[in-house]
Amino acid sequence: MAKTEFRALTVDEAVARLTPPAPTLICFHTRPDGDAVGSAFALSLWLAAMGSRCYCVCADEVPQYLSFLSADLQESVLAESIPTGFENARIVTVDTASPAQMGSLFEHFGDRVSLMIDHHGTGTPYADHLVVPQAAACGEVIFDLIAASGVDVPPRTASLLYAAISSDTGCFRYSNVTESTHLHAAALVKQGIDTAEINRRLFETRSYQGLKAEKAGFERLRFFEEGKIAIITFPYALQQELDVREEHLGTLIDVARCVAGVEVAVAIRGTIKGDFRVSLRSNVDFDVAAVASSFGGGGHVRAAGATVSADSIEEAQEKVLVALRLARS
Amino acid sequence: MAKTEFRALTVDEAVARLTPPAPTLICFHTRPDGDAVGSAFALSLWLAAMGSRCYCVCADEVPQYLSFLSADLQESVLAESIPTGFENARIVTVDTASPAQMGSLFEHFGDRVSLMIDHHGTGTPYADHLVVPQAAACGEVIFDLIAASGVDVPPRTASLLYAAISSDTGCFRYSNVTESTHLHAAALVKQGIDTAEINRRLFETRSYQGLKAEKAGFERLRFFEEGKIAIITFPYALQQELDVREEHLGTLIDVARCVAGVEVAVAIRGTIKGDFRVSLRSNVDFDVAAVASSFGGGGHVRAAGATVSADSIEEAQEKVLVALRLARS
Q1: In A, which residues are within 8 Å of B215 by CB distance?
Q2: Are B173 and A171 inside 8 Å of each other by CB?
Q3: Which of A227, A281, B39, B317 is at a distance of 20 to 30 A from A250, taking alpha carbons?
């Protein structure tokens, strides 16, 4: 599905393509995050100010915790709710690195995307024209487009772009943050936006189910190798008993990882299929991706995952422990 | 103890006072945080590079979680360990807004502080000369001094100043963050420091006791007013049973505050004296300081506290609930 003929545009060239008013559909990736939603609606407000009728569209609805970004601008982002008048619209994607990330939108629009705006440096080109610099967030790229057009970034748009950048950097915590990220944030903060409130909504609101899962996980936290390895096992039966789903178990690994003295954290959860999903995190110079790959998994040096077959969660834990001890020795 | 005769210096004047080499003691506040430790040691490295022998000193030792900032520079920061040669040293304080914050150092040095470097805009002047602009962190002020002296900020110093700024802003989450904060961060990130690792050490390492207290608090979390008020009670007997101390209970309020839908969060803990310490947080436009002040306490609109007398923690909770309902009606 990748294109072999495409043209990478400079920021100025992209502005020139976007400036002429035309009905525009702005697509963003499935299971949208703050960068996708913030970038899409910021682009939409900017193009609308220049006379284009815009509509933001995604294969999935904006999740509840991000609705503060877009609810007053659009009720829904599903393809079914696209108003009339967008039949021959210009199609632009944001924060969508590959056709697969368009999900079900790809069959509607995948073959006629005129501009792909992303920030991953690489990706799978699927549009005629691309703007894909290396940046921490797509919000940085949208900011650069607006700035290059010579207009100011109004506060509402600044809030969206700040949310985009903060979201993709874990509020400036991750290693993808560069000098440029902070310079963009400075320019956005200058517009007088309530960054503390945006960050509270992005990062400090948790589901009760998620907290319940963390608490149960904490009770099952075990330490090995003088406290340097921390493992949480979470059997499938416990998920049923607590009525928690996979989406509530994403922070389980953090419970193990954040304990003082822990070098390698592991979360093992049972699945409905009977195998075990293992997440690995390293707080030190130890490659957990190598351990994950010994089980057919993969990832990065400090964050990796694999699926392990075993007759019980205890056996899965033992297999992981053996692999960790071998790799550490 | 406050001075009535003092002089506020510009950054350039402060640089001129600090440049001449002289033995220098750099004092920072009791119960030191990342801004205090980072600012003190960054100042120390800069003055040392200009030929001054420096020693950083505090009434309390640097806490374990911050030792990565200073352990390679000084083994201890207690007054007892000051080497010889500092008997008539120039005394500079950083991040210390009042004489009380010097703790036991005040009796040693309080009457001969030559320069107070702080960032709170106001404060209680106790030195002959002050540099106290309004900034999110003292680290911003130290950066400005170094920059004004015309030298580069080396990576080791940049790490200290980044830690100082990130620490006092909750990694850029709090409302004290300004355009200037991000511009300072940009300049520091440019030096090629490992900000992700600094943030992990500052924010993602927790004590096992603290996690234990949070989980016990979660079990005691109760909701009122359709889930808009969340209250955690933590009896003194439970603290003894779990062997947790006051320092482990600081994040209890966050457990209540972060649940989706909660507008006002309350944590009530029993004390050894038999009264009850109440912490209040507001996620919405509701003034918890007013509620706290009805119990003789105080604070800010969104974060406040008070001590409540009652015969039991249940009665204390009822008193707080009545006050909250009254204020909300």
Answers
A1: 214-215, 218-219
A2: yes
A3: A227
- Residues A248, A199 share a domain: no
Please compute the mean of the pLDDT values over residues A84-89 and round it to a whole number.
Answer: 95
Q: Is the pLDDT of residue A1 over 60?
A: no
Quick one: how far is CA B140 from the chain centroid?
Answer: 15
Contact A260 B177 (CB under 8 A): no
Quick one: pLDDT at residue A54? 98
Cβ pair A158, A193 in contact under 8 A = yes
B163 and B248 belong to one structural domain: no
In this structure, the answer to whether residues A125 and A237 fall within a common structural domain is: no
Asked whether residue A1 is assigned to any structural domain, the reply reads no
Same domain (yes/no): B187, B84: yes
Question: Which residues contact residue B8 at a Cβ distance below 8 angstroms, ignoring those fewer than 6 apart?
Answer: B129, B130, B131, B132
pLDDT at residue A304 is higher than 80:
yes
Given this model, what pLDDT does residue A251 score? 86
> Which residue ranges of chain B lie beneath pLDDT 50?
none
Asked if residue A138 and residue A253 are part of one domain, the reply reads: no
Task: Kindly report, residue by residue over A100-139, the tens digit of the pLDDT.
Answer: 889 999 998 888 999 999 997 766 788 889 998 889 999 9
CATH number, domain with residue B118: 3.90.1640.10
Which residues have C-beta within 8 Å of that of residue B84, sequence separation ≥ 6?
none
Token pair for residue A303?
A: 């964050």
When CB atoms are compared, the residue of B65, B179, B189 closest to A189 is B179
Task: Label residues B96-113 b or e (16+ Cβ within 10 Å = b).
Answer: bbbbebbbebbebbbeeb
- The answer on A313 and A248 residing in a single domain is yes
Q: What is the pTM of this model?
A: 0.86
From B36's Cα to the closest Cα of chain A, the distance in A is 20
B67, B140, B166, B173: best to mutate for the A interface, most A CBs within 10 A = B173
